[in-house]
Description:
6 helices; seven-stranded antiparallel β-sheet; disordered N terminus
Amino acid sequence: MLRGCAGLLRSWALRGPKRGRSFSSEVLHVDHSLPNPSWNEDMRLLFDQFMKKSEDGSWKRLPSYKCNPPERIEDVKIFFPDAKLLKEQMSQAQQFPRSLGEGVGFEYAMFHNHVEDRTVCIFQGGPHLQGVPGFLHGGAIATMIDSALGMCAILTGGIAMTANLNINFRRPIPLCSVVVINCQLDRVEGRKLFVSCNIRSMDEKTLYSEATSTFVKLDPKKKN
Ligand SMILES: CCCCCCCCCC(=O)SCCNC(=O)CCNC(=O)[C@H](O)C(C)(C)COP(=O)(O)OP(=O)(O)OC[C@H]1O[C@@H](n2cnc3c(N)ncnc32)[C@H](O)[C@@H]1OP(=O)(O)O
């Protein structure tokens, strides 16, 4: 069962949702990991570089949508049989990092290398993510780290949740700048996936943050 879910999830993460479903097509089919007018020159440059790396198939761009497709919700329900996923609330639910308007919040695109178990996220943090004036809020940085590490873990192990996340904030990240989050699956022990990352400037000279994490694969035999 877990294997099947992992396969479904990987297929969704790598290729996007099946078309032709009765879900709102705007919500399902707008891929937010493609360039939009709010992306600055650096973001576009990095995106083009990774698209080039993707040409030989070693890296894959991960599509990204505001909402989960119905089949994804069903995948997760297996692990939470008692959870009250109310229809009305679920119809309004959005992925947190995609819930802010274009350009003001999290602008990002992720690429995954399946052979190396690496995920790279290029991230432009918009003006509504401010903490200390002129710089990104630590919670916004943590959100993006959790999402990128999560993607790296899930693409390897299937449905997993963050159990532990440790972040060292080394330098403040300027608002509206573009940074690169480099994630790496370090090891797998049973249901535990150990994933780490660093955040660097485009020229790689500045180390902004480092993080280590433990993701735990959900066990369908356990009632959550
Ligand atoms: C579009 C797609 C986007 C994808 C990216 C999204 C990324 C976002 C990910 C998240 O933010 S998830 C939300 C935040 N996380 C949570 O809400 C998780 C809440 N915690 C839980 O639900 C459970 O604690 C958890 C599922 C993580 C583990 O519960 P289990 O009952 O399945 O684990 P169990 O207690 O059996 O422990 C299994 C192993 O994990 C270890 N473990 C459990 N909790 C741990 C912990 N907190 N830290 C370190 N290790 C832990 C535990 O020691 C054990 O190791 P061993 O196998 O060696 O004995």
